[in-house]
Automatic annotation (TrEMBL):
Keyword set, alphabetical order: Cell membrane, Membrane, Transmembrane, Transmembrane helix, Transport
TM ranges: 84-104, 116-142, 162-179, 219-245, 265-287
Chief place where the protein resides: membrane
Ranges for domain ABC transmembrane type-1: 80-288
Protein name per the record: ABC transporter permease
The UniProt record lists the keyword Cell membrane: yes
Origin superkingdom: Bacteria
Taxonomic lineage of the native organism: Bacteria, Bacillati, Actinomycetota, Actinomycetes, Kitasatosporales
Species, as recorded: Streptomyces katrae
Family as reported in the entry's similarity comment: Belongs to the binding-protein-dependent transport system permease family.
Topology in membrane: Multi-pass membrane protein
Compartment(s): Cell membrane
Amino acid sequence: MLAVLLGLVFTAVELLPGDAASASSERGDSAADLRARRHLLGLDRPVWERFWDWMTALPTGDLGTSARGRKVTDLLSDPFPNTLVLGATAFVLTVLASLALGCWAASRPGGLADRLIGHVSTAAFAVPEFVVAVGLLLALSLWTGWLPAVTLTGADGAPADWTMLIMPVLALVIPQTGWNTRIVRGALADQARTPHVEAAHLDGLPVHRIILRHALPGAVPAIATGIATSTGMLLGGAVVVETLFNYPGIGSVLAAAVAGRDTPLIAGVVVCAGAAISLVLLAADLVRARTLGVRP
């Protein structure tokens, strides 16, 4: 899947107007200068040949050289860990909030809390991350001054203060919590119709014990799969959120790479994000297989 995705990236960049040579050219460069730069960057070679060379170097950890002459691994060594911190924090908070809200709603089926959580979670998921980010900027920064509007970086390239993570994390957590709360609630509703859960109700066990001890373990496979699929949306939303909050992640790197038609740098960002998403999906498959007692 990752190889196919990278092939699409190379093809898509090739179809964009212009190329890295023209995007990085200086004013006054002649046509001969552009041809020489295209030859230097290898842009006069077929795209499939450049893709093959890049893919064969990938297993050694070589992500190629950007159009500006710097190693892609060097360009991503600082921003990608920052994006991982942002995405991992948002992921953990999303899981905790979704489980808490989903279990709360399932403990009162058809009640006020169940209906309210259902409506709010649907509305939260329907709102894009950039809209949530703008709302947070207005409410928590411009109107109240509680949090800084932009992220300042320290000497190590990371955010200078942990409070600068709050709004970017919330902008990612709110929509994905809405999505995953619906998944948790639906999985628990399916488990509520199973014989062992119905028997637990007939035995008069407390509702919270039925949810945690009887329904939730059986719902884990569906919940794990649903939450894992939101990883891609978290990292995809992070690109937009990082730009809005001036967060030092891969969002600004990717935007600059697309503007500069820098194929190796774009592919480097995609392979790092794709590898992280693939690992989370693999972990979800292993959890599902272990829970169901199936050999992975």
